[in-house]
Structures are given as C-alpha cells and as structure tokens.
Amino acid sequence: MATTSMMTMPTLKTASSSLRRGSSRRGIFKACCSLENPRVEGHALSLVDQFDPRIAIEEAVTPPSSWYTHPSFYDLELRRVFYRGWQLVGCILWFLDPRVFFPGRLGNVEFVVCRDENGKLHAFHNVCRHHASILAYGSGKKSCFVCPYHGWTYGLDGPLLKATRMTGIRNFNVNEFGLVPIHVATWGPFVLLNMEQEVDGDVDAVADEWLSSCSEVLSNNGVDTSLSYICRREYTIGCNWKVFCDNYLDGGYHVPYAHKGLANGLKLDSYSTTIFEKVSIQKCEGGSVEGKNDYDRLGSTALYAFVYPNFMINRYGPWMDTNLVLPLGPKKCKVVFDYFLEPSLKDDKDFIERSLQDSERVQMEDVILCEGVQRGLESPAYSVGRYAPNVENAMHHFHCLLHSGLTK
C-alpha cells in the first residue's frame, strides 16, 4: 500500500514517576487488575472461548452476543485489556507548559497527567492517600494538588507536602504517602499510560508494543505534532464499546447505506484495508470537489487507522481527528473526538465550522447505528453473525487480537 510522506516521523518519549517506599503500588495494581471471584472469571473465560480465532474469516462466525452484553465479560476486558499495556489518554499539546494538568478515567481507574515545574511529564492515580477522595477535577494549571476533602497537599511530582491536622498520629512517614505513580509515555501528538507494575520503559519497546511496525506508516501519512489542535467533542452512546469499534472496522460496508452525504465525497470502490500486528489501516480516495465552491474537507485520500484496542486516527485533507472509545459498562461507552488541523487553516472559521458540522452529522448517524446494534445484540433472536470476507477483515483482526488479550 503506497504512502505519501507528509511530515517528519514523530518521536516517542517515556517517563515514569519514581516509586517511593510505601506507595503501595503493587497492592493497588493487584487490586485493580485481578478478578476477585474465580467463578466470575471462569464464566467470563468460557464466553471468550465461544469465539475461535483459528478459523479463517471465510468460515468464521463473529463473537457471540454475550461478548457485548455480559457484565463478567466486561470486567474481564477491563483487567486484561485496558489495565494492561499502553493506553492512549490524551494529546501532548495539552501539556506544553509547566504546571498543566489533565485528569481522566479508564474503567475504574482515576488518573491525572501533569507537568511539574521543571517540565517533566508525570501521571498518577488521581486519589488522595488519606481517605480516597478524587484529588484533581477539571483541567488547567496548578502549583500543587490540594485535596478538596481534607486539604492534604501533593507536589506535581507526587510527594506528600502537607498532611493537615495530624497531631498525635504515630508511625506516620510522609515519604510513604505520596501519590501512586503510573507509567507515562508520548508518541507524536499522543500521551499514553501503562498501569502495569513492571514496564519496559525503553523507547523502542514502547513503540513496538503500541504500534509495532506501523509507526512509520502513520508518520508518513501525516500523523504528527505540527498540526494545530482545534477542539474536543464527546458522545455518550448506549452500546458496548466494541460495537463502535466494529462499526469503524467494517471496511466502509455501511457507508453508502448510513452516510449518504459522506459517501458522495468518497470513491468507495477504491476502499482498501491493510492489516498490521496491532493496527489496521483503511484507505479511500476522495471524490471530486466540482460544484462544491472549492470546499473540500476530505481531500484526495482518507486514511482511517485503528490502533488496538480502542483508538482511531482519521487523516483526511487538512484534517486529523482521533476517536477514543472508553468503556462505561457492558452496554454503554463514551467516544471522545479530538480535532486537529493544518496550521494554515486554523483561523478559517467558516471552513472549520462547516467541517465540524459535516463531521457531527456522520457521528450522529453512527450513534443511531450503534445503539440499534446493541438493542439487537440483546435480543434472544441473535447469537452470532458472519463476516463479509472482502471488507470486514479489519473487524475480524480486532476480534482475534481481543481473544488473544483476554486469554493471556
């Protein structure tokens, strides 16, 4: 698959907050990444085995509906997929200045990413060590984190600076009660977290684990930090997180039926899919812009990259938007869209507004689709489906990767 070099290859950097004595990181990781009830885990694994990744796509059936509806399967996914490996959580452009912070949530894990006074990037569990209050809300700049509950104060590099009204306490060492750190890394414009205790922080190891051999392909197709950040939009959808991923990975199958406006701007017969180790890339040529007053949001080629397990990068025309799918329960997810634009157009308000309106229309069409699929998955009339081998190979690849992650 041909690629066009558009920008320099992003560099990856890693940083890990130091583990302080008594931080109890081992205990916290064990608690959030292990199933408490062996029977629940056993039932969830029996559901995993109902899909066989060894069967070729031409003969394979899709994962059963229980993958998309059962609470025990959802819990297993959190622990074996989202609490392991590198997970995208944000954009490096939000952290250019010292003292900037941004909190978030992945499954049951509350986290906060920040830069300290010296410009070093950190990530921590966003939980006060006193009585478990959430520490940081919103986003912005701080010189320190002050707990809104009892005023315990932490430095942006993690140590406990002040514990209020603790007179008379015994066997209390402030050095043992700093914030619990999380490994943090960057690739191009993206910030990644890894909640595992033992993490190889080597630059090449992180790149290989997250993108494998696809990092250069993405770089050569314009995924880079030189783009200007425009805005964020969020959608809470009544469907399992995998329903949204499946919709994205059907090789344009649904586009002419559900996105007629988008279909008019694409040459759907040019659709192609390339599979990498943990990434799949769909490409499609853009249609003619004649009669559109030179308004061309999609450009000559649209690239849609899916990075396992839940991240999408869409590069088209002067735009890049990213979709991060966050699981909120067996039948609910949040999809976070971040929009980036080539700097020469960042002040063109009319172009930006029109482009965002077109994007919004497509997203709302997808919301209707995904919520309809979820309702069908919960019907007793449906158990498993089949793949369209010539277009849904990226979806099959996603299901195989998920099976592998759940059985490790």
Automatic annotation (TrEMBL):
Catalyzes the first step of the osmoprotectant glycine betaine synthesis. Gene3D superfamilies: Naphthalene 1,2-dioxygenase Alpha Subunit, Chain A, domain 1, Rieske [2Fe-2S] iron-sulphur domain. GO terms for cellular component: chloroplast stroma. It catalyses: choline + 2 reduced [2Fe-2S]-[ferredoxin] + O2 + 2 H(+) = betaine aldehyde hydrate + 2 oxidized [2Fe-2S]-[ferredoxin] + H2O. Its EC number is 1.14.15.7. GO terms for biological process: glycine betaine biosynthetic process from choline. The lineage of its organism: Eukaryota, Viridiplantae, Streptophyta, Embryophyta, Tracheophyta. Its cofactor is Fe cation; [2Fe-2S] cluster. Belongs to the choline monooxygenase family. Residues 88-193 form the Rieske domain. Keywords: 2Fe-2S, Dioxygenase, Iron, Iron-sulfur, Metal-binding, Oxidoreductase, Transit peptide. This is Choline monooxygenase, chloroplastic. Pathway: Amine and polyamine biosynthesis; betaine biosynthesis via choline pathway; betaine aldehyde from choline (monooxygenase route): step 1/1. GO terms for molecular function: 2 iron, 2 sulfur cluster binding; choline monooxygenase activity; dioxygenase activity; iron ion binding. It comes from the Eukaryota. It is found in: Plastid, Chloroplast stroma. It is an enzyme of class 1 (oxidoreductase). Pfam families: Rieske, Ring_hydroxyl_A.
